[in-house]
Amino acid sequence: MAALLLAAAAPAPCAFASNLSARDPSQLTPAQIMQYIEEQKARAAAGKGSDTSSTPSTSAPPMLLEPSGRPWCLRFMPSLRVEDLAEPFRSNVKRFIAALEQAGMRVVITTTYRPQERSYLMHYSLQIARDKERPASVPAWRGVNIDWSHRDRDKLKANLAQAKSAARDMVSGYGISSVPVSRPGRSAHNFSQAIDMVITGYAGKTIVDAQKKTRTVQNFIDLKSVGASYGVIWYGPEDSVHWSVDGN
User: Fold this and answer.
1) What is the C-alpha to C-alpha distance for residues 233 and 166, in angstroms, rounded to an integer?
2) How far apart are CA 200 and CA 47, in angstroms?
3) 162 CB-side CA count, 13 A
4) pLDDT digits over 69-109, tens only?
5) Domains present along the chain, CATH in parentheses
6) CA 72 to chain centroid
7) Which residues does 225 contact at the CB level (< 8 Å), separation at least 6?
8) Against a cut of 0.85, is the pTM above it?
């Protein structure tokens, strides 16, 4: 009769297992101890661990990394649309381009908004290609599962020659020459505050600036002054296609 009472007083298996770590072993009854042993045997027979059978795994599978190389140049594409610029810079650019085209000049836009992921790829491929950054030291960037080091299948050994060659291919694919490429998050393009455009056919043309003054354009420096009147600031000869809200 006492044994039956003890058995009846024992907690259900799930409640016992979940509270085991919080119980004082010296306070367990013989029936509870036997119940725990039988429960462990049943778990082992079912091929389940005693501590994790009721808790699903929350660990995510490791992210698969893809070696660097030219295919990355076709991802995280930039915008060529003036409409993707932020105001008031967008309206300033539209007015400046309208003045350029009215003066008979030709304007080809190559970039407006640039995703930070693309800036990341451009910046570090150039750094590796110029031996200014070791592939293994490039920081990871969220959403870009790139392997800069070209490691083997076991992820143990890097191939520096392949890594540098792939970086040079990316630099070529992006069309980067001697122009600087800002770190991600530091480029005005990332915030829709810059535009890259090629302007041709300007020599000897007359153009109206933002103050309605007619100017004769002799060289690119004259264009710089006209752009500034519209609030579109030229970066400089180091990156002659780059115009932004503040010249950076």
Assistant:
1) 34
2) 74
3) 13
4) 999 999 999 999 999 999 999 999 999 999 999 999 999 99
5) 70-244 (3.30.1380.10)
6) 12
7) 209, 215
8) no
